[in-house]
Amino acid sequence: MKFATLAVHAGNAPDPAYGAVMPPIYATSTYVQRAPAEPMVEGYDYSRAANPTRSALQENLAALEGAKHGFAFSSGLAATHALLSQMRPGDHVVCGNDLYGGTFRMFRSAFEPFGIEFSVVDTTDLKALEQALAKPTRLLWLETPTNPLLRITDLEAAAALAHAAGALVACDNTFASSYLQQPLTLGCDVVMHSATKYLGGHSDVVLGALCTNDDALAEKLGFQQLSVGAVPGPFDCFLVLRGTKTLPLRMEAHCRNARRIAGFLADHSRVASVFYPGLPDHPGHDIAARQMRDFGGMLSFVLKASVEEAKQLTTRTKIFALAESLGGVESLIEHPPSMTHASIPAEQRRAAGLDDGLIRLSVGIEDIDDLLGDLDQALAG
Ligand SMILES: *Cc1c(COP(=O)(O)O)cnc(C)c1O
Which atom of ligand 1 is nearest to the CA of 325? Predict the structure, then answer.
């Protein structure tokens, strides 16, 4: 089956009790058993271990990544934590230098103190990546496109280098979504999602996921859900399951609008630079064109003006709401250095090429004329 069909149907078998088209929200913590340790349906004895609404979502998310196994967690960071928890003291992890800020913060605060060593490299530079992998490595953690600079890592080439070094390869696929990019088909071993963003798509839920074809790892991740317990509730699972049905339609609209806005900003006299992989002069454009279906709904830009003026601009838009997060149907604007990326030290931010005046847009699915008009009036102010 093709993607749009899977998005609607995978995991969504009609409910056997009443034939409901949409999987019910099984709001239950426990299940009646026929005899001790004999649940009515195998595996369903307590909702931390398994819940039918969560199972439906997990099946759907796995299908969208072309994976055998899917696991839902209470947030994107909880999903990342579940994977990193497979590391042991002394293990070496290589990760990109332009990751989601919360991912960095977790590596530093939750895993480094337990003796896991991180090498931070520019994964768009394959030579630098190969050098970092020269030291025995358990895991390569990738994110592409990155947040907020939309840098592109060549997943096929990076995964090949990591596999030659004996490392597992994980990719945070939040920015692209499963519709635009399928890391497992490009050689990665595990895909992570903040389903809070495009998969949910309506800014109404926090949820995370891991997908893999690796049976041994899947076993461990399932045990992680049961033994650590960072699982989402059935209503949250229902919301994401509802969201993924329209993922292809929404992503097409996000991409179409973002492409127009990137062009508009690139031509605007007050704009110094635009970061969008769909622009031909973006350094990752060719790789993105190869490994992604389209270029996504996220972009960043820098004004030919002071940092103060950049911050003021974020308060002048009327349709773009000033807010963190991304991937919802509504357009958002933010200032990463003081908001989403404030937890990264200024020196490190600048070294990674993140300008103090950078503005990030999550382009929604509203009418493009209204969005362009809104940015035009904000830039004129
Ligand atoms: C939001 C985000 C996360 C964290 O996910 P939560 O659902 O907020 O825990 C991880 N990676 C990226 C790229 C994100 O945008």
Answer: 1
- Protein residue closest via CA to atom 5 of ligand 1: 76
Whether residue 172 lies in the annotated active site = yes
Q: Model pTM? A: 0.96
Ligand 1 pocket member 76 (CB < 6 A): yes
CATH number, domain with residue 16: 3.40.640.10
Q: Which of 45, 48, 242, 245 is catalytic?
A: 48
Domain span at residue 272 reads: 247-380
Which of 216, 245, 274 is at the close of a domain? 245
Report which ligand 1 atom has the smallest distance to the Cα of 174: 13
CATH number at residue 300: 3.90.1150.10
Single residue among 212, 245, 278 that ends a domain in this structure: 245
Q: Identify whether 197 is a catalytic site residue.
A: yes
Structure tokens at 108: 């530093």
Is the CB of 102 within 6 Å of ligand 1? yes
Beta strands in the chain (DSSP E): 33-35, 38-39, 69-73, 92-96, 117-121, 139-143, 168-172, 190-194, 208-212, 271-275, 298-303, 321-322, 332-334, 359-362
Q: What is the pLDDT along the chain (381 residues), one digit of tens a residue?
A: 999 999 999 999 988 889 999 999 999 999 999 999 999 999 999 999 999 999 999 999 999 999 999 999 999 999 999 999 999 999 999 999 888 889 989 999 999 999 999 999 999 999 999 999 999 999 999 999 998 899 999 999 999 999 999 999 999 999 999 999 999 999 999 999 999 999 999 999 999 999 999 999 999 999 999 999 999 999 999 999 999 999 999 999 999 999 999 999 999 999 999 999 999 999 999 999 999 999 999 999 999 999 999 999 999 999 999 999 999 999 999 999 999 888 778 888 888 888 999 999 999 999 999 999 999 999 997
Nearest partner of 54 among 19, 13, 22, 26, judged by Cα: 26
Question: Given the CA of residue 78, which atom of ligand 1 is nearest to it?
Answer: 9
Q: Is 241 in the same domain as 256?
A: no
Residues 186 and 109 in one domain: yes
Nearest CA to ligand 1 atom 2: 194
- In DSSP notation, 22-60 reads SPP----SB--EEETTEESSTT-SBTTT--HHHHHHHHH
* Residue 91 sits in the same domain as residue 237: yes
Residues 239 and 251 in one domain: no
Return the best residue to mutate from 74, 100, 105, 205 for the ligand 1 pocket (most ligand atoms within 8 A of CB): 100
Domain count, the chain: 2
